[in-house]
Structures are given as structure tokens and as C-alpha cells.
Amino acid sequence: MSDMTSDMMDTVDIAEAPREARRKTEKTEFMVYFAIIFLATLPLATLTWLLSAIRSRSFTDKGPMARAWSQARIITPMIFSA
Within a 13 Å sphere around the CA of 18, how many CA atoms are in the beta-carbon half? Predict the structure, then answer.
């Protein structure tokens, strides 16, 4: 007769491993998409910031990095929810 209680904990750990690996993979994939979208939106964000600064004669608005970051934060979750 074998002791199954010690094997039960190993089974739970093995079941959790794929879930944690999947979460890490999804997070990495999200960050890769976020970086690509951030770099893609940066030129347009710079242009719109520059035009806005010229129009308002003030550089106190959000800068181009903040604008690109916000756009990437909006667009990336839309891709993952589709």
C-alpha cells in the first residue's frame, strides 16, 4: 500500500506550472505588442504635440512620450480582447 498524500501536493504543483507559464507568456506577448504600438504611435504623437504647442503657444500639455504611451495603453488591450 502506498502513501498517496505526498503525491497529491506534487500533482497540484504540476497543474499550476502550465498556468503560470501561460501567464508569463501572455504578459511577455502583451509587452512586445505594447512596445511595437508605442514606437509606431510616437512619430504621430510628436507631430500632434508639436502642432498643438504651436497653436496654443504653450509647451505645458502632455509631451509626445506621454501621448504615445496613452495611445499604446488604449490600443494594446483592444488587440488582446478581440
Answer: 4
Q: Which three cell numbers stand for residue 62?
A: 502632455
Greatest Cα pair distance, the chain, in angstroms, is: 84
C-alpha to C-alpha distance for 6 and 53, rounded to whole angstroms:
67
Is pLDDT above 80 for 33?
yes
Contacts 24+ apart (CB under 8 A), 20-25: none
Residue 59 DSSP code: -
* pTM flag (> 0.90): no
C-alpha count within 13 angstroms, C-beta hemisphere, residue 81: 6
